[in-house]
Amino acid sequence: MSATACIYQVAVPTPLQRTFDYLAAPEMATLTPGTRVRVSFGRREMVGVIMGQSDRSELPRERLKPIGRALDAQPVLAPSLLNLLIWASDYYHHPIGEVIHTALPVRLREGAAAVIVGMKFWTLTSKGQALDRESLKRAPAQKRIFEALAAAPQGLDAAQLAAISPRWGAAIKALQAKEWVSSHQRESQLFSNAGPTRAPELYPAQQSAIAAITQELAGFHPYLLHGVTGSGKTEVYLGVIDRVLAQGKQALVLVPEIGLTPQVVDRFTRRFPVPVVVLHSGLNDQERLNAWLAARDGRARIVIGTRSAVFAPLKHPGLIVVDEEHDASYKQQDGFRYSARDVALMRASREAVPIVLGSATPSLESLKRAREGGYTLLELPDRTGGAGMPEVRLLDMRRLKPSDGLSLPLREAIAARLQRQEQSLLFLNRRGFAPVWMCHDCGWLAPCRRCDAQLTLHQKRGKLLCHHCGAEQEITARCPTCQGENLHPLGEGTERVEGALEKFFPQARIVRIDRDSTRRKGALEEKLQRVHAGDADILVGTQMLSKGHDFPNVTLVGILNADQGLYGADFRSGERLFQMIMQVSGRAGRADKPGEVLIQTWHPDHPVFAALQRHDFHGFADFALTERSETGYPPYSHLALLRAESPRPGMALKFLADARALGLGLPPAPVVQILEPAPAPMERRAGRYRAQLLVQSPARAPLHGFLGRWLAQLAEAPLAKKVRWSLDVDPLDMY
Ligand code: ADP
Ligand code: ZN
Ligand code: ZN
After folding, report:
1. pTM of the model
2. Which of 253, 270, 320, 713 can bridge 355 by disulfide, Cβ–Cβ 3.0-4.6 Å?
3. Ligand 1: which residue has its CA nearest to atom 9?
């Protein structure tokens, strides 16, 4: 390089869709793309990432600022990952600096060195090992921690202990004081499992699925593995991973947010004698960095994580698995709105590795692609262990009078389970006591002051809460409109159903699982543990219950308000309803204890229910795909949604109208349709007026070409700086 300093393009986390030019100091060694640097940006110091190099800039040299210093001797992001991020930035039209920021562990974003730092962990002492556990009976937190340590000879770290008990800090101190537990430091949380479990004898359908996938492990091959819950999909992943590990490669396994349970992780860690890292929200920043580095350096052979793990670096990528590929948690709903499933597909294609998308209820997008031959469709038709699918019965609510949301046949079915000492599970997608607090004299409904929505009564907390903005109000005893005192709750939430169950079945042990009852750290695990240990007869909860957990002793599933999904505002609500019920159906009953699913509905003739009764996913998909092709919604078109909001009424809509006019003024992209802007289904939320504009196209390429040109103009629109706006490519939620 010449004596003149060279110019680098640096990505910094700002909302601007571009990189920025900086000068390298003459004595600085060449900086490779992917290397972090400290730069001053405006008045702030920032951590940026080198994207490229050049000898000219749009700005005169003397106006360019120098790079402060390089933070890495080796780039933290390998070219393959960096290129994937560049692709994602283009595809989602999101600033590259912010995209890179999302992909890096917090410690690296802050500028910390990319090195593993020792971690503290705890083990039992020999004195502790000789201890009789019963002596801890009076200290339940200590007892739980102690038992967990006894089961983990390699020790447990802070994050693992915190998952066992929220009071782990005090408990571990007490145990240490008694010299039953001691603490140690180690380089990282990596350890290999010394005693791997054996795979079961596989069923023919599993064998052929594994054979199909492993027949050619080099190159990009997408597979859609369809099989009901409990049909043995996880065993197929494990079988394929086994072959991938044998080739010296790594496997990346993505699971939905709620599916990252200890049971799931255990199956992967127990099977193979290799180090596994789990990227979950319980990790602190250093632990996350350690895990990230272990994946990058190839020491972690299996990497399991939720959405953002799709950006985990891998030294020797060999396979990507996306479990429950239809799950909504794969889509980030704010900021950088990417779909981890779709990014995973692009990543697999660029890294030339196979990818397995698994689901009991594949998304219609994936199913259509598989039917057209884009993915290889693999089917696991039966549940393992000879279990059949449960019988699905519809309870026609036009004829049945529910009491607190529970119809008589449903109550009788619960009573029968109680008698047989089996468990029942009731679903209701609404937390709180009642969704409405109403004056029976004049019809007044308690509204949220900041949203176009009613307040939900939370009786136990003694409050009225808004589920959209979090606002909290006292329960009004007197109607503000007519001054009457005839106020009553209307409709049912989980809290009310729980109360009703207590009344109908005073002897039953009832566990409620929803966001309110599991707010405390560790509460969800505690409740699930109770259910698994058989310390519960009836579970009632929201969709938190429908995923990731197996309840082998549950033989009755009741769906209380199925109809909400039938005619929802969103074109995907029917698909979601089908997925939810199908997912739970797969969890009810076993070979020796057949299950039953009861659905309370006012629309028993709806075709979604007929397909559910036959457990006929493909039948449902035929019907739903026909509907989509008639209405022109995905997967028969591609969508982008421009959202805007403002505290001032009308501003968001005005901005979108201007945006539409700008779009129509561009060189015409004939197939791209810009629809009229419309207020969001709930227009006012948290004091802001929201509106949206849908852009639709039968093909992806013209849509993305258009979006690029359009966004460049939008930033210049008169109201662009006065309203908050964002673009959502492939939106999942339409409100
Ligand atoms: P899915 O991932 O489709 O829900 P799993 O792989 O978890 O299904 O299998 C469901 C249950 O059946 C698990 O308890 C698993 O251990 C067991 N299982 C899976 N395959 C077999 C097999 N071939 N033989 C015996 N048990 C199996
Ligand atoms: Zn009134
Ligand atoms: Zn509100």
Report:
1. 0.89
2. 320
3. 232
